[in-house]
Amino acid sequence: MDARLQALLDKQDITDLVYAYCNASDRHDLDKLRQLYHPDATDDHGGFFKGLAMEFIDQLPQIQAPMEILHHNVTNINLALDGDYAEGEIYVLAFHRIRTDAEPMDLLIGGRYFDRYEKREGVWKYSARAVVADWATVNNPSTVQLDHPLVQGSHIGKPGLDDPSYDFFKLLKWGER
């Protein structure tokens, strides 16, 4: 029973790590993102980047600069554990609204993260991540209508500290996992 309970706790810690990655990416919270990877971790984002995760995070301000909206949604989480090592196939829907010279465009990607995790000093973090796109839908121009009357008066999410969540929450802080 103790091994099953530890496996459940480890899987929850890894699931929390996956969710923290989505939040940090969507809010452009690079401090939080750095906390999620081991210093020697790698990241393979296809055409955007392949190498050390910390170097990828260093390049994110330029990569994310034209992205007006980022919205990662995790669906299926498949995890396998072996002591302090784990692997995950994480299904994700990632929406991007991208500023262009003409009009903004939308990119919706259905894909998966191929992850490796290691528990070091009692903490699970990414040791490797690869992004796989299974499908994509592009709308050019964008079909997002945040100015539509049905949305008027709503709080609108934004990257960075201007996001309404930072004024609302006391426990979910910027730069913290």
Automatic annotation (TrEMBL):
Signal peptide, first to last residue: none
Pfam families, A to Z: SnoaL_4
SUPFAM superfamilies reported in the protein's UniProt record: NTF2-like
InterPro entries according to UniProt: NTF2-like_dom_sf, SnoaL-like
Domain of life: Bacteria
Record-annotated SnoaL-like domain positions: 6-129
Name used for this protein in its record: Nuclear transport factor 2 family protein
Lineage: Bacteria, Pseudomonadati, Pseudomonadota, Gammaproteobacteria, Cellvibrionales
